[in-house]
Design a protein that fits this description.
mainly beta, Thrombin, subunit H, 3 helices
Length: 423
């Protein structure tokens, strides 16, 4: 595997691509206090802790602070910590991790194995940041730990070779989870469903056996319910819960989709786990804990929300998300407790979403960006604008709101907008 840190050369090359748009850039030290340490944020629930944000945008959208191209083909979003931004893309037939300063200038680059050039080519997963280290897994199972400031490689494990797994049709897409001293990954297969590695060394701490299922395209979550800490993810044909300390398989329920497209992250809230996928739709499972064991029962299921990969948000007891092939409109609102559909509308079409300070931030697959007021009365777009093309293909990367900035990616280009409310 080729692994190269490209520091000063990359910085010099990309500095010419940063477009400041005539706006002052907030100092890195001011931004460093705000972090988004991986896919779907610090709690992996896609809720941003950012405050002091605009409640509506000016006509034409919020001010563009900068944009930077040359990141490589991909769908990765950004992780943010310590005054640096991180994302991934296909460059020169490699999966390349790029670290950017808060003004968009490249700090370093690292090639983490080959680029994914098979169906739907492009980098998938978003880096995960923890205690000054970066963890990233490419589509071929190369899991690497880097020094987040310098890009120096600290350790590497290929999880498919290590655990005798087999890759899946569109390549591994998991953004790995850090739980204490453990890096959680999902090689899948007949032998090992999930594995925990020591985050300092990459050595195996435990393996979870018994699921007998290929990996999905999902990123896991971790939570504690009634004293039992467990990790939940979607495999290719099922949803599983694993004991966080030991890896023991706690529960498993079938969840099959066409082409094994179990993609979206599960969601935990108030003793229940929610999942949503294309065609099969949405399901809520109630957890029943008995000491160190756990079982689940299905509370409800519906095809009113069939989210493929744009994400579903829980806001004030209601679920908001978009569906694939919904005759009544791709945007839907459901009651968390019952699964009852409150409304379905066209909105801005299928979109990726995040939430911050009472608003949903959505980017459609055609590049329409909307600031949406969550409402049980229907789809309420407060403001919209169109971002430029940043390459070819659909707009799939999930938005990120952090430190008064909105980060949007299309293919090879990352856009940074100022969404802070001015005093």
């Amino acid at each position: 595997m080729r692994s190269t840190v490209l520091c000063s050369v990359a910085a010099a090359m990309t500095a010419a691509m940063v477009l400041a748009a005539g706006l002052p850039v907030t100092a890195a030290e001011d931004q460093a206090a705000f972090e988004w340490p991986g896919f779907h944020g610090p709690r992996r629930d896609n809720h941003s802790p950012a405050t002091g944000l605009l409640k509506a945008w000016p006509e034409g959208g919020p001010p563009l602070v900068w944009s930077v191209g040359g990141l490589g083909h991909g769908f990765s979003t950004v992780a943010i910590a310590g005054g640096l931004l991180y994302t991934t893309g296909n460059l020169d037939n490699n999966t390349v991790i790029t670290a950017l300063a808060m003004d968009g200038a490249v700090a370093w680059r690292f090639a983490n194995g080959p680029a994914w050039l098979n169906p739907q080519p492009g980098a998938r997963s978003t880096p995960t940041l923890d205690a000054g280290r970066l963890y990233h897994q490419n589509a071929d199972g190369d899991l690497v730990c880097l020094d987040a400031k310098t890009g120096k490689r600290l350790w590497h494990v290929n999880i498919l070779r290590q655990f005798n797994g087999r890759n899946i049709q569109w390549g591994l897409a998991e953004s790995v989870l850090i739980d204490g001293d453990r890096v959680i990954c999902t090689p899948g297969g007949q032998e090992v469903g999930m594995a925990a590695l020591d985050k300092h060394s990459g050595k195996t701490l435990w393996t979870s056996r018994g699921a007998n299922d290929k990996p999905g395209y999902c990123s896991p979550i971790v939570f504690e319910h009634q004293g039992l800490r467990q990790i939940v993810t979607l495999m290719a044909k099922s949803v599983i819960g694993v004991h966080a300390e030991t890896g023991r398989l706690l529960w498993q329920v079938p969840h099959e989709t066409p082409f094994d497209e179990n993609i979206g992250m599960p969601m935990y809230h108030d003793g229940s786990v929610f999942v949503s996928t294309r065609t099969t739709g949405s399901r809520l499972y109630r957890l029943k804990v008995d000491g160190q064991d756990c079982s689940v029962t299905e509370a409800w299921s519906t095809t009113a929300l069939e989210n493929q990969h744009g994400g579903v948000l829980l806001v004030d007891g209601h679920l908001y998300g978009t569906s694939l092939d919904r005759a009544n409109g791709p945007w839907s609102c459901l009651e968390w407790a019952t699964g009852k559909r409150v409304w379905s509308e066209e909105g801005i079409g299928r979109a990726s979403t995040t939430w911050a300070e009472g608003r949903i931030y959505a980017m459609s697959q055609q590049g329409t960006v909307a600031l949406v007021e969550p409402s049980t009365d229907g789809f309420r777009a407060v403001s919209t604008f169109q971002i430029p093309k940043g390459g070819r293909g659909p707009y799939w990367a999930h938005p990120v709101v952090c430190g008064g900035r909105l980060y949007l990616r299309h293919n090879e280009t990352l856009f940074c907008y100022d969404v802070s409310a001015k005093p």
